[in-house]
Amino acid sequence: MTIELQHPQLIPGQTVPVRVVDCDVHPYPRTGELAPFIPEPFRTRFARRAQDSGAEIYYDAPDFAYSGAMRIDSYPQDGEFAGSDPELLFQQLIIEAGSDIAILGPGNHAPGQTGDEVHALAVATNRWQEECWLDSTHNWHQRFRGSIVAPIEVPEAAAREIEAWAEHPYFVQVLITAEPRPAWGDPRYNPIWEAAVRHDIPVSCHLGRGRYNELPMSPVGFMTYNHDLMVSYSMLAANQVMSLIFDGVFDRFPSLKIVFIEHGFNWILPLMWRMDAIFEAHGVPETGLRRKPSEYVKDNIWFTTQPLDYPEDKLELTNALHWMEADKLLLFSSDYPHWTFDDPQWVAKHMPDHMRDAIMFQNGIDLFHLPKEVPSLLGQKRAV
Fold it and tell me: What 3-state DSSP class applies to 222?
C-alpha cells in the first residue's frame, strides 16, 4: 500500500478553536531509536533479554497476522512499526481525522523487571519523547503533548521524573501502570501523588496487562482468549478506584486528578451506587471518609471514551451517560494506531448534544491545561 502524505502548512497569524482533544495516542520508537537514551548496563541487558525471549501478545486484532493489532494503514512505508512516524501520525490523526491536540501515551518498549530497570526505561522514554516527538522539528504544528512516564514500582524515582519534566510546556500528564501491588491507596505511593499535586498535573493510567506474571489482571488467572480480556479488563481499574477512595488518598490529596485510559467507563455507575450504599450502611467511623464515595469519583477521577460500548438501542447509552454525569467524567480518546481506533466524528455523534463539547474537548482543555486555540493548518479536516 502506498500512502501519499500531504505537507500541510501553518497559516501565518491564524488560529482555530480546539474542538477535539485526543487523550490516547500511542507513539512507538523506530528500530533502535530508544536505545541511545537508555544508560548502560540496562541497554545491553534489555537487548539481550529481547533477543532471548519472544513477546507474548494478548491483544490480537481480527487480522492480527497482518497488522500486529494496529491499523494496517498506520505502518510507515519504510517498514517500521505503526505509530513510529510522527509525520504519518500527524497526517492520519490531525489532518484526516480532525483531532486538534493528541496526547501521546508511550507504552513499555523494553522488558524492564527490577526497579532500577523500570526507572531506566522511564527516563529513556521521557527523553525520547522530548527529542523525537515534542521538539520543534516534529511538533512544528504544536499539536502533540507528551506523558511523563513515572515508574510507580519505585515511587521516589517516579517523583523525581515528575519534578524533572512537570514544567516542560509539552508534557501534560504523568503516566503510571495499575498492575503492581499493593494497591494505590498504600502510603508508599505518596511521593507520586505529592509531586503531581504540587505541579497540578493529572496522573493517568493506561490499560496494561501481562507484565507481572504473578499478578494477572483477572482474580482467577490469565484469561484464555482475547475475548475474555477485552470484556474483563475494567476490573483492575475498579479495584484501584476503591483503593484510592476507601484508603483515603483523596482526603490526603484533595486536588489529585486521576485518569483511567482505555479501561471502559460504563461500569463506574453501578460501582458508585454500590460504594455509596456500603458507605451509608457503615458510616464514617468505618472508613474515615469525609464525603460519599461517588463525590470523590466526580471530583477527582476521569475516564476515556475508547472503547465505546454501543448497545443496539442508542437510548440505553444515552441514559447511562446521563446517569453517570459523563460531562464531568469523560474524555475523548481514539486509541490510534490500534485497530480499535475510534474516529472523533463517530464518537461525537453518539454523545448527547449538551455533553458533546465537554467530552470531545472542554474537559481535556481544563484538565490538562491545554490552549483553547491552536495554529491553523491548511487542509485540516474539522471533525466536530
Answer: coil
What one-letter code names the amino acid at 380? Q
Separation in Å, CA 180 to CA 113, 157, 216, 222, 287: 11, 15, 10, 16, 24
Question: Cis omega before residue 106 (within 30°)?
Answer: no
Give the integer Cα–Cα distance in Å for 110 and 173: 21
Q: How confident is the model at residue 377 (pLDDT cuts 50, 70, 90)?
A: confident
**Are 364 and 332 within 8 A, CB to CB?**
yes
The pTM of the full predicted model, rounded to 2 decimals, is: 0.92
Angle subtended by helix axes 234-246 and 293-300, to nearest 10: 110
Q: Using alpha carbons, list the distances in angstroms from residue 9 to 20, 95, 141.
A: 19, 11, 8
State which H helix or E strand residue 195 sits in. helix 190-198
Q: How far apart are CA 364 and CA 256, in angstroms?
A: 16
Nearest to 204 by CA among 131, 144, 135, 152: 152
